Amino acid sequence: MENSVNPIKLSGIRALIASKMQASLKNTAQLTYHCRADVSSLLEARKAWRDAGEDKVGYEDLLMHQLVGVLREMPEFNSRIDGKLAQPGDQIDISVAISSKRGLVAPTVFNVQDKTVPEIAADRKDLIERSQIDKLTVPEMTGGTFTISNLGITVVEHFTPILNYPQIAILGLGAIQRIPWSVDGEKIEIRPIMGLSLTVDHQFIDGAESGQCLGLIKQAFEAGYPIPA
To answer: What is the pTM of this model?
Structure first.
């Protein structure tokens, strides 16, 4: 019986992506840590922005805003590898994994620390649109200091995202599931819970620091978000 399914060919941008992934796995010692976060405040914040007419604001934009404080407190996770050095960035430039027509790309929203939530959303939307027509620039494709990869629209709660080499850390965002959750250690409520997966280069960052960073990310994602005045 003849196979009617087209083979997957490693060519063009997919071949470049594959080469970059291989380089990432070859040159780093990758280890992934997992936890879950109650994102009730996240859902409330997005609703507030959309009720205010800011339809472009999505979960990723709000989460990127929250990451600024964490990466300022632990700048080693906002670093790029240069030989035997991991150099923290002077600014927070967050790359966003995007599925384009030609393959997976991770362009960058620059200077996230200086931007409002709507500005982050506008920049991310622009990157998504230009990724579909091959209009991303080389600096946008190579200049990030930290990456987020979102599988929230799937059933995947946790995964092992591959480092966007030469960056030192990447955060995977999993699906939000409404499950029983302990609130204040006293009562059980049904809450929206997001799976989080932090991959780091274990050559430069140890488990204690990684656990601390993921704990801070969890706290930031569970805390209050900026909302329209």
So the answer is: 0.93
